[in-house]
Amino acid sequence: MNKGSARKSRPPPQNTSPAPPAKHQALSQEEDFVDEDVFLDENLLDEDALILRDIEERQALASRLSKWTRPPLSQEYVSQSKSIVFQQLEIDYVIGESHRELLPNLSGPAAILRIFGVTREGHSVCCHVHGFEPYFYISCPPGMGPDDISLFHQTLEARMKEMNRNSKAPSFVRRIELVQKRSIMYYQQQTSQSFLKIVVALPTMVASCRGILDRGIQIDGFGMKSFMTYESNVLFALRFMIDCNVVGGNWIEVPVGKYKKTVRNLSYCQLEFDCLYSDLISHAPEGEFSKMAPFRILSFDIECAGRKGHFPEPTKDPVIQVANLVTLQGEDQPFIRNVMTLNSCSPIAGVDVLSFDTEREVLLAWRDLIREVDPDIIIGYNICKFDLPYLIERAEALKIAEFPILGRIRNSKVRVKDTTFSSRQLGTRESKEITVEGRVQFDLLQAMQRDYKLSSYSLNSVSSHFLSEQKEDVHHSIISDLQNGNAETRRRLAVYCLKDAYLPQRLLDKLMFIYNYVEMARVTGVPISFLLSRGQSIKVLSQLLRKAKQKNLVIPNAKQAGSDQGTYEGATVLEARAGFYEKPIATLDFASLYPSIMMAYNLCYCTLVTPEDVRKLNLPPEHFNKTPSGEIFVKPNLQKGILPEILEELLTARKRAKADLKEAKDPFEKAVLDGRQLALKISANSVYGFTGATVGQLPCLEISSSVTSYGRQMIEHTKKLVEDKFTTLGGYEHNAEVIYGDTDSVMVQFGVPSVEAAMILGREAADYISGTFTKPIKLEFEKVYYPYLLISKKRYAGLFWTNPNKFDKMDTKGIETVRRDNCLLVKNLVNECLHRILIDRDVPGAVQYVKNTISDLLMNRVDLSLLVITKGLTKTGDDYEVKAAHVELAERMRKRDAATAPNVGDRVPYVIIKAAKGAKAYEKSEDPIYVLENSIPIDPQYYLENQMSKPLLRIFEPILKNASKELLHGSHTRSIFISTPSNSGIMKFAKKQLTCIGCKALLSKADHTLCAHCKGREAELYCKAVENVSDLEMVFGRLWTQCQECQGSLHQDVLCTSRDCPIFYRRKKAQKDMAEAKQLLERWNF
Amino acid sequence: MEIDSQKNLQRKQCSYEILDEQYKIQKETYKGQQYSHIYFVRLHLMRTILHSLVSKWKPHLPVRTVLELEEGKECVIVGTLYKHMKLKPTILDEYSKERSVTPLVKPHNFMHPDDYLVLEDDSGRVKLSGAVLLPSVYATGIIVALHGKETGVGDFFVDDILEAGLPPQIERPVIPNEDKYVVFVSGLSIGSSSSNPLQFQLLVDHITGHLGDEKEQGIAAQIVHVVIAGNSVEIPRGLLNGQHLSAKDQTKLTEPLKELDILLNQLAAGLSVDIMPGPSDPANFSLPQQPLHRCLFPGSSAYNTFRSCTNPHCFELDNFRFLGTSGQNADDLDKYSEAKDKLEFMERTLRWRHLAPTAPNTLGCYPFTDRDPFLIESCPHVYFIGNQDKFDTRLIKGSEGQMVRLIAIPRFCENGVAVMLNLRNLDCHILSFETEFS
């Protein structure tokens, strides 16, 4: 899709010596939907000159690649005697000459839509759709007749011409039609009004035309007038999809005889043809058409040889390897595995190794691979921000002009743009946008960041989280050494590179991204590529537009000036009565609360009555609802809302999908249905957010504030009903108590001791209270917490029961189990405490555990890896305003060894060490490896006070009296052991003398091990020493063989430096401790 | 006990030579070396042996490395087997996200039907397929030669397997015409709840000839050597956490050692005794385990008949070669592979010419850099393992006339059984001591 840029500036058409691909600097907020016209021919390179060049050299390669091409076309396709049915994945448009045969009446440049897809047999399709024109609406000024309209047309045309002087277009405004429509905004009694549909020649003209009308235009007889435009912010491709009922990723049929094979193939697709937009048949994704075509998915990864101390830069550092895996959608093994290497590389079983002597050949081989394999989807980890831009910039630096032809259009170069994407949900991100025509890019990193909250997004950490698979992590400073070695070391690197290409594919399969995203595209009706690159609102807008079209409504392009509409009161929570509850707590949940409220009270743009209208229309009270926030919405008998209708459809569809899911047997069908029900749920929940997004497409705070105010009312209402009804006066055994209420749930303690009894009462309460609500708002009883530790609002933990016999799991909210800036020790401690308190019901045990851990910490017996804190280095030291521990450390490490110091973008692990009195916190950070190597003492007080105390007190305060005194200042905090640093100044002057192993007394020259006094305890002391060695040996063996296991080789040394790996520091420490313990033991063998 | 005897029984003698040198770790230290070296050395030495055998086994086939494989071309490859195991416990489990609600039951065996083998040489790895090579029989660390070809999906389809086979044996000494016995005992576990002090005392008395009538004493006089194959004591490990010990705990700790020393003292006074360390003894953990320190046996270490040895332990008696371990090698194979009995595991290790192939992968092992002490270069005449569930023995023969007596020594503390081996015919029988009175 073409999107994002507000300006259009492209280099003039090139022939023989093409310039680098165009780069646009644009700030595209997710809410700015702007088309960008791309003219055919502009991006094309001279075909023959390039293809013919070094064709001979590449012939050998070509024959290797050609075995991977798509299956050949059957006779029916060749003779055009078969309808073409395909699943589309990508729709964009290009400006070209109108098709003379299909559109005999038109001439001049026109927008031609291109639909890319795959047939059931696996043939690639490029369908050029003609005849669809860009348009938008304005409201027709009263009294404007047909003559006035033609006059208006001429005026507008003249203004347009003035504005676009350089344009070659013969006409701008094609025509203006008078239509009867209605605005979606506000309840109106009349059924329709006059609107003008302005049809323009090219998609970008919508924006410039809107500009003219916004600012005002002089019309004879009407004076200077400015217009509110309608639906002028709809991207052209989306407009087409909406009008033709095409949803993202659905199947499209072009009947036999309705398509014409292109005279000259513009693309590399097997089936390329022209047709009229009105001849397309769009199939709803049901039955046979809910399946997936066999797309080709390419997963790739590149390796670059960086210089020591620098992150690779495309202008300087070569690309040395590219690993590729191609998988057919629905199959579990890739059918192509290859790796392209610079310089020789030893063979790898099951993998095609293609070695080249120059970087240029590597890059071109990769381009050829893309062309031959013709992938529909390109995936990888961080490909959008790193791999793809790097390849393109590298080719630019090497002056390989013909490299960036990666799209499906013959000789058309990819387009690169720098974009800043910002959204409320995700914050601001800088990224590169690379348009590869006809191929969907799916960056797993982006998908992960969008869909999962994780403490680290490194490929290693994500893989170990989802696939339980660790991977070897080779530091980029070693990569160059491996590359500069021999064929063997390069093979090592290639294996690593292949793994990096393999893991994204595994993640894609495991997390069912293809199914979930295609279903999301189908449900919301936007192209798949929008889902990753854009925010939530386009999805809701797409649905709104589709629905509005059915209802003959038009949506205003209400350009809002920031968030001057003010804010509104958010969701509410009932006061939390903190405590440790040892009786079952029943939880009553509102099922899809916000969507239900919108449906129950008919909240919509088109049912909202403005304050003036309330007076004017004089509506009878039984026809409207006044919301708790004071807005008026009419009831469905006067006007059924569009949003409620969309929601209803989404929720019914979800119910159906869930029902089908139960019936489904085929695993692929199941995957589709599960993806669908998930997409439907997410979509239903995002409608509310759309109305509240103040910088969004169509914010309407009247709706969103009404929703939350109803929500608050429901919670209060529930609390009141429960506490009124379930009382001893009402015949129940105990008085019920509401101890906490969240956005859409209420926690009730009925006072009964058993889970089963609480469940019965919970169900009764849910049914009783649901009866008092307007449909479809429904209170459901789902679960019981028992026991339940309520710390404060949004922070609690409890055992989760859905059946009275066995609890399902331990559920925690808002407690330090996943926070990034806590060290592992805290996380483990909190987990273990909760486990002991909730599952073992052993509070004294938990207290003892805390004391032991604190004692271990003070005695320096804690595994260092548990104390490591990591923070991302987002910019260099000078750019930070406040000195931060990890930034200072990065600077210090750079001074020690620039090659291994962390760079911007890396995560910096550190521990807090003991420093001189009065040292600033940021001066006390140190590299864990440095700490290990030099036996630098850590600062246990820091960990106790800054890391452990708060989370611990939070948990224990509701349970324990004097928690702070008991836990943090007890007798277990008395003895402290601090190791002596080996590199500190004073130690250099100290004379080392042997001391007795038993009592530390200095030994005389004659003794080596023990003093005379301790001789009698020799056996005991020896046992101790040997036991220590024995423990360490066991750990040493297990750690190092695990690393061999991960790296997948027994005969080669472990190189991995993955600091994300939990055993990285332990491994290092085991090595060091082992040597020391062994030395001590040696003293017995004099 | 007073013994009235007319005849003066003379204990038989035999020559003894200790061959533990290769299992000693003296100069070696932990200097950051990893386990790749030991695999490399193992592969290097075994490959030489296997290559020479391949030229007899499949002379028509080329020998290739994993790198040189070509699809569809038959060849022989030699390398280290690696077994990919789904259930294999890993240290990373300690860090698993969720603490499981029910504690994991430690399975006795970690095999799974999905396990598969990979062959690795110093050039690369290839996944193995085909029905000839059973993953259940093999474990990580074994070196074999395989005949087969690479398939389209990158697997190596195995048609035939060649193991190194029993190593050459030193010539069998002249068979003595008199009975000479060697006693094997293991798992005394003094200090554990199951150990019965009387049982071991009876054994000692029997061996030293303080028990029974003249006939029995006559047999006792034919015992020339005693081997204690590991797990002699069990010390309360909970006490050894680095804290200072109270006087009471100190006694608790050293009491079993003292008891052992007293009994060993009695034995060593009469005949030569070898004691090997086992997993529960106060010795280091990883193989080869180093001799138990003399300071643990202040009494018995005064005798020159008392020898504290390594585990594995190798020695010669009257030129019969003995090789044995305290059982860890077979126990570990039992966790990661399958056999009908422990003796079969022992037989396999001989055929693989490696005492402990799973070290270092699943069996703790010192990271040697220039040698692999567990390679069996010379076939023993007697091969024993300690600390087994029950006594078992078998005589196996090699293709070149090698004869090996395999012995699984049971844990003495459980049923009071020790093993007697007659050097004259390599026959074995048990000595059983009951202290129950019914």
From TrEMBL, chain A:
Residues 1-10 have a biased composition (Basic residues). The keyword Iron-sulfur applies. GO terms for biological process: base-excision repair, gap-filling; DNA replication proofreading; nucleotide-excision repair, DNA gap filling. Residues 526-959 form the DNA-directed DNA polymerase family B multifunctional domain. Residues 996-1067 form the C4-type zinc-finger of DNA polymerase delta domain. It is found in: Nucleus. GO terms for cellular component: delta DNA polymerase complex. Residues 229-462 form the DNA-directed DNA polymerase family B exonuclease domain. It holds the Pfam family DNA_pol_B. Keywords: 4Fe-4S, DNA replication, DNA-binding, DNA-directed DNA polymerase, Exonuclease, Hydrolase, Iron, Iron-sulfur, Metal-binding, Nuclease, Nucleotidyltransferase, Nucleus, Transferase, Zinc, Zinc-finger. Residues 131-206 form the DNA polymerase delta/zeta catalytic subunit N-terminal domain. Its EC number is 2.7.7.7. GO terms for molecular function: 3'-5'-DNA exonuclease activity; 4 iron, 4 sulfur cluster binding; DNA binding; DNA-directed DNA polymerase activity; nucleotide binding; zinc ion binding. This polymerase possesses two enzymatic activities: DNA synthesis (polymerase) and an exonucleolytic activity that degrades single-stranded DNA in the 3'- to 5'-direction. Belongs to the DNA polymerase type-B family. PANTHER family: DNA POLYMERASE CATALYTIC SUBUNIT (PTHR10322), DNA POLYMERASE DELTA CATALYTIC SUBUNIT (PTHR10322:SF23). This is DNA polymerase.
From TrEMBL, chain B:
Residues 34-161 form the DNA polymerase delta subunit OB-fold domain. Its main location: nucleus. Residues 182-393 form the DNA polymerase alpha/delta/epsilon subunit B domain. One of its GO terms (cellular component) is delta DNA polymerase complex. It catalyses: DNA(n) + a 2'-deoxyribonucleoside 5'-triphosphate = DNA(n+1) + diphosphate. It comes from the Eukaryota. InterPro entries: DNA_pol_a/d/e_bsu, DNA_pol_D_N, DNA_pol_delta/II_ssu, PolD2_C. Pfam families: DNA_pol_D_N, DNA_pol_E_B. GO terms for biological process: DNA strand elongation involved in DNA replication; mitotic DNA replication. The function of the small subunit is not yet clear. Belongs to the DNA polymerase delta/II small subunit family. Heterodimer with subunits of 125 kDa and 50 kDa. This is DNA polymerase delta small subunit. It comes from Cucurbita moschata (Winter crookneck squash). The lineage of its organism: Eukaryota, Viridiplantae, Streptophyta, Embryophyta, Tracheophyta. The gene is LOC111441443.
